[in-house]
Write a structure and sequence with these properties.
The complex is a heterodimer. Chain A is α/β, with parallel strands linked by helices. Chain B is mostly helical. In chain B, the strands form 2 sheets. Chain B has a two-stranded antiparallel ribbon with strand order 1-4. Chain B is globular. In chain B, strand 2 (about 185) and strand 3 form a beta hairpin. The longest helix of chain B has 28 residues, at about 95-120. The two termini of chain B are about 30 Å apart. Classes of the chains: A alpha/beta, B mainly alpha. The interface between A and B is medium-sized, with 29 and 19 residues.
């Protein structure tokens, strides 16, 4: 019985240092089976694949627990090379192709077909010539099996992304020994028709007896092609189902579902019906997080969450409004139009921003805590300066006093206000960022991924700080990949999919609705508030 | 204990430890060989004062993010031009010194502006560009020196057009004008009060500048441009300000250098001067991303003192190695620059 399986993973667990990222995962795969693995960002999909490929980051951090059985044999895959030798291939999310080589050359790279010539007879193997006709024929065969009518002698540079994806796949299936192929979010960059084409190609590949692991968050695609489905959440296996025995609602719920712990906060609404922020048709050109026509209204005094999967554009919204990435559209702050693409104006309109890239954008790592806290206020509001006619000097006493107050109020653990920020822990660095935003005395605070890279205890403190600021009247727009976190503090949660609002939900809405909106299937979400015109209605209700 | 030593070596830098060790070794040798220590100290002080402002010119450049200013020759050229104008106008003494600086300022500011604009176009490879901008400007000015219509017999060639290669400053009372100001002899050591005071004054002014609103924004722009953008700071603008201040300090620096040296050196003269200044601030503990006034003072002292002590020590061993000081200067100078470049890690 067990011999029927191509690959079995049993009780696979993995910890990075003390953080458990995978626990007790079982997975079994037959030849010719398409097996989907679905889960949110951070559910453990990538880690599982890294284990399968023997990536070095697994083995340099203490390896993993559990066992892998491949073709009936117990295997320890210690390097990607070994995985390839076993016949395991991967179609990457980012293309690994050489743009100035032809499609054939890319497909055959490092596996070229050679033929002898005079010189090679004298000087050996390395000087053999390439057998281009045979290589072209091989490439042609691989492309044909995917039903791609593209010429094999064309250079990869300039091909549409969809075609590049197929070249990647062709390279993998051209390997004669290939037995298992992993598709990592292959449709993320594809247009709908291309995605459809890809799914057909996957089915054809499976018919040849090659097993496919299909990693995705698009649930409808899963239902369309997969035979079996594994759902991961927070590093645990929550369900394994046959596609015929489930539906996307159930999958959505399984993918998202978790207990939502509401942080202690005021009952009854504090926010009123005036709009602190109105965004219309916002387009932000932020690589990897493109926003494509985003509409949103934020009430004064509310905490609005922006959620969604990575790469869908949720991060781009705050970066665009703050002028950090080129954008267009209309933004009204307290009813006044905001000049876009100019950060100082955004700051003058009393907007403040905690960047998702804390160490890259959020901090001057080699400067003191106190300088980090005051610098934006010094530059934009002439605070903490002593003036001498046209000249100015930093007001050390005022800076020190404010820094000490913030260190006390926000409980920043440090040796003193002069300590370098680099030496602080992630949570304390985040508090320094919050302190800097507060120094500007903002009306609206944008917070992106406030708890990323912070340990559990500090997470709670940061979230509680945000709630406390909100109770003092600050409007907060919080962007986060962690849905549970949004649901624990937000008044309303906007889910972004493909650069647009997929819908706005209440924190206590059902897991199914959250899952469906995140998976880009808003039309199927039941009871969700989907139409922009109805946002106001939800706010009142 | 071992870990402490390793940490110290790591923080302080192996190259700096070797240089410090070399300096101490030279000092011990100087004592053993019974060299005149007072005289060595005197000339060290002079060389620190005369080079100090040029080294200081590196500070705003590193702070604003363009890295060590290998193109400070632009400022040096502006300073030389200002000095020539002062001589042409027959100014004397302090007036000549002040005049030389004032005349050079507009040139330095203008050139610094254009240079800053250029550097903003090549973010990431400023040092390479700066080096070649410096070389090109020095070469172009070789033609400039021949064409400029200076008539003063002190500097014009006796026949034909243009100015001479080396111009003596003694006639105008410009030579050693700062060195001799309030100079006094303390137990055989001559203290060039005016020169050192001027250097420290410049350090003080730069320190104050770095604490103004402009200076703080400039430091942020240099330290982390993405942070600065998010804080509403116009990074390009502040990089240009830093470049201009650096160029202006280069102009002031060469005037101070020339009055102490007693001559203006045109043509080939400014070609390699930036390297001396870059090496000095790096020896003082600066990196190509971060520097302070202390780095300037310590670095100038260490670098110049080594050169002063090395020469007589080498001469004692063998007369043939009279060029030992020059050789060690080049080894130390280029060695420390290479060391600093290898220490830059991507954040």
């Amino acid at each position: 019985m067990a011999d029927d399986f191509l690959l079995q993973m049993r009780g696979v667990s993995k910890s990075y240092y003390s953080t458990q990222v995978l626990k007790d995962i079982d997975l079994a795969l037959k030849p010719g089976e398409i097996h989907a693995i679905v889960g949110e960002n951070g559910a453990g999909k990538s880690t599982l694949m890294n284990i399968l490929f023997g990536m070095s980051m697994i083995h340099t951090t203490g390896g993993f627990e559990g066992e892998m059985i491949y073709e009936g044999q117990h295997v320890d895959i210690l390097s990607p090379q070994q995985a390839m030798d076993l016949g395991i291939g991967m179609v990457h999310q980012e293309f690994m192709l050489l743009p100035n080589y032809t499609i054939t050359e890319n497909i055959k790279l490092n596996r070229e077909v050679l033929k002898g010539n005079v010189i090679s007879r004298l000087f050996g193997e390395r000087l053999k010539t390439l057998d281009m006709p045979v290589m072209n024929a091989d490439a042609r065969r691989a492309l044909d099996s995917l039903d791609i009518g593209i010429e094999e002698y064309v250079k990869v540079a300039g091909l549409p992304v969809g075609y590049m994806q197929f070249v990647e796949i062709a390279r993998e299936i051209d390997k004669t020994e290939i037995k298992l192929l992993v598709f990592d979010e292959p449709t993320a960059v594809l247009a709908e028709s291309e995605a459809e084409h890809l799914l057909r190609a996957m089915e054809r590949i499976a018919q040849r007896g090659i097993a496919i692991l299909f990693i995705t968050h698009r649930l409808d695609e899963v239902m369309e092609v997969a035979e079996n489905i594994t759902v991961l959440r927070d590093g645990r296996l929550v369900a394994q189902k046959r596609a015929t025995e489930t539906n996307i609602y159930e999958l959505a719920e399984l993918m998202v579902g978790r207990k939502v712990e509401k942080l202690a906060r005021r009952t009854g609404k504090i926010w009123d019906d005036t709009m602190a922020l109105s965004v219309r048709d916002l387009v932000v050109d932020m690589p990897g997080e493109m926003v494509k026509g985003f509409d949103l209204d934020v009430h004064k005094g509310e905490i609005l969450g922006i959620g969604g999967l990575a790469g869908q554009g949720k991060i781009g919204v705050a970066n665009g409004v703050m002028g950090l990435y080129p954008c267009r559209g209309t933004v009204l702050v307290n009813g006044e139009p905001l000049l876009l693409n100019h950060t100082p104006t955004s700051i003058q309109h009393r907007l403040a921003f905690l960047s998702e890239d804390r160490r890259g954008v959020g901090l001057l790592l080699d400067s003191s805590i106190e300088l980090n806290i005051v610098i934006t206020a010094v530059h934009n509001q002439d605070k903490y300066l002593r003036k001498f006619g046209p000249f100015s000097q930093l007001d050390d006493a005022a800076i020190r006093a404010y820094a000490l107050q913030m260190i006390h109020d926000l409980d920043i653990r440090c040796t003193g206000p002069a300590q370098m920020v680099r030496r602080l822990s992630g949570g304390n660095q985040q508090k320094v960022c919050i302190a800097r935003a507060l120094a500007l005395n903002p009306d609206i605070l944008f917070v992106s991924e406030p708890t990323r890279g912070i340990d559990v205890g500090a997470k709670r403190l940061v979230l509680e700080t945000l709630v406390r600021l909100n109770e003092q009247g600050m409007t907060i727009v919080m962007t986060s990949s962690e849905l549970a976190e949004l649901r624990s503090v937000c008044d309303r949660i906007a889910i972004v999919s493909e650069g647009k609002i997929a819908g706005i939900l209440q924190p206590d809405d059902s897991d199914v609705n959250f899952g469906l909106l995140m998976a880009g299937r808003g039309a199927q979400a039941r009871g969700a508030d989907l139409l922009e015109g109805r946002q106001g209605a939800t706010a009142h209700g | 204990m071992v870990k402490k030593i390793v940490d110290f070596v790591h923080d302080f830098g192996l190259a700096r430890i070797i240089i410090l060790g070399f300096f101490l070794l030279l000092c011990v040798l100087a004592v053993v060989l019974r060299l005149d220590f007072a005289e060595l100290l005197s000339s060290s002080l002079v060389r620190i004062g005369m080079n100090g402002v040029l080294v200081l010119a590196m500070l705003p450049a590193i702070s604003c993010g363009i890295g060590p200013n290998f193109g400070v020759s632009l400022g040096i050229l502006a300073g030389l031009l200002g000095s020539l104008i002062a001589i042409e106008l027959r100014l004397d003494g302090y007036v000549a010194f002040t005049g030389a600086i004032l005349f050079s300022l507009p040139f330095a500011a203008l050139v610094g502006y254009g240079y800053g604009w250029l550097l903003n176009r090549v973010k990431g490879s400023e040092m390479m560009l700066a080096t070649f901008v410096g070389f090109s400007a020095v070469s172009v000015m070789k033609i400039g020196w021949l064409l400029l219509p200076f008539k003063s017999p002190e500097m014009a060639w006796p026949i034909g057009r243009g100015v001479r290669v080396t111009i003596a400053l003694h006639n105008r009372g410009l030579a050693q004008v700062l060195n001799d100001t309030l100079a006094f002899n303390a137990g055989g050591v001559v203290i060039p009060t005016g020169l050192l005071a001027f250097f420290l004054l410049c350090c003080g002014l730069v320190w104050v500048f770095l604490r103004t609103k402009t200076g703080v924004a400039m430091r942020a722009a240099g330290d982390n441009p993405r942070f600065a953008e998010a804080a509403g700071i116009n990074v390009d603008q502040y990089r240009m300000i830093g470049t201009m201040v650096s160029t202006i300090l280069g102009a002031v620096g060469i005037v101070v250098f020339a009055q102490s040296y007693g001559f203006l050196q045109l043509y080939e003269g400014p070609m390699f001067m930036p390297f001396v200044a870059v090496a000095a601030i790096l020896i003082g503990g600066a990196s190509i991303k971060k520097a302070s006034i202390a780095n300037v003072i310590i670095g100038t002292f260490l670098f110049q003192a080594i050169l002063v002590v090395a020469m007589p020590v080498a001469n004692v061993f063998t007369a043939d190695m009279a060029s030992m000081a020059e050789i060690s200067r080049i080894i130390i100078q280029n060695g420390i620059i290479i060391y600093a470049l290898t220490q830059t890690r991507g954040e």
